[in-house]
Amino acid sequence: MTRLLVLHGPNLNMLGVREPALYGSSGLDAINARLGQRAAAAGIEIECFQTNAEHALIDRIQQAPAAGVDAMIINPAAFTHTSVALRDALLAVGTPFIEVHLSNIHAREPFRQHSYLSDIASGVIAGLGPMGYELALSALLETTQRN
């Protein structure tokens, strides 16, 4: 069975409350539940994890290979633009991942337009709201079934 780790970065626990005009009205629990349903229907084991702490994301990434994680979806949120440490952790484990952003980071403030992760990601999905997570799941399912 394919194992998928979904990582949500800082402030994503505030979805549905924080700037709904920008990030939408869906809460993180609803996004995770929908992903869980889709994963279960596809026979994928999924674990979702959210934290506001950079070190906790790094710990989860480093634990992924030993936990049998085949692929990851990560919305690094603000760490996208600041965390070389997150990049280094993803490079160290070598687990394929898709970077997801609810908003289109390329249409936002200049400091949000750079990602430390995009060039090492298997793919990047931005600006499609919660559907971006589902598209990432579909893409990972397609690629893991081919391998």
Short overview:
It is built from five helices and five strands, in the order βααβαβαββα. It has 147 residues and is of the alpha/beta class.
Strand order of the largest sheet: 2-1-3-4-5
- Gap between N and C termini: 13 Å
Radius of gyration over C-alpha positions, nearest whole angstrom? 14 Å
Count of beta strands: 5
Strand content: 15-25%
CATH topology of the domain at 1-7 and 53-67 and 80-125: Rossmann fold
Q: In CATH, what is the class of the domain at 1-7 and 53-67 and 80-125?
A: Alpha Beta
What name goes with the CATH superfamily of the domain at 1-7 and 53-67 and 80-125?
Answer: Dehydroquinase, class II
Ranges where pLDDT stays below 50 over 5 or more residues in a row are none
Major pleated sheet: 5 strands, parallel
Note the run of SSEs as H and E: EHHEHEHEEH
Which class of secondary structure composition applies to the elements?
A: alpha/beta
What fraction, in percent, of the residue positions are helical?
A: 25-40%
The CATH architecture classification of the domain at 1-7 and 53-67 and 80-125 is 3-Layer(aba) Sandwich
Shape: globular
Mean pLDDT: 89
What is the overall number of helices? 5
